[in-house]
Amino acid sequence: MSSRLLRHCAVPATLAALLLAACTQPSVPAQATRPTISDEQMLTSIRAAGDKEKSVIDVNPLRDPGVAALQDAAEGDLRTGKYQDAATKLDQALKISPDSPDLLQDRAELAIRLKDYGNAEKLAHRSWELGPRLGPLCARNWQTIVELRQHADDQAGAASASKWVAQCHVEGLQRY
Prior knowledge:
The chain is 69% helix and 0% strand. By secondary structure, the chain is mainly α. The longest helix is centred in the first third of the chain and has 22 residues, at 2-23. It starts with a helix and ends in a 9-residue tail after the last helix.
């Protein structure tokens, strides 16, 4: 009699388990997400664009001693991870020299570290407007815009900005 009782109890228990399983929500398939790159990876790409630009044009303006001291202090803050302090110093330098393309680009790259992406793009574009529009600084300007457009998932904007990076290069004369 006990085996008969167990058979009758097993059927309702199995039925209950099946009913419970039917009541659970099916898992929602994970949406395909685009791979995101870190701010550090963006900055590495930006610096690489400037480093690999071997065009004839490379403008290095004379630096105001006050601006140079603030830039050097900001670099020290960057090395120790004090990004907001570095930003404050670069902002002070920009008050002294507001139309300095290299300062604007440095501040744009720092804005990326501070996750102020909209301002970073504006600063990079302003740097390009005031800069030589050729050479390493130009490449950094446009690579900044490429990275930020990709970060915003604006593939058309990123593709357009990539074309501008290529236009920063000027071939030298072949000398034999």
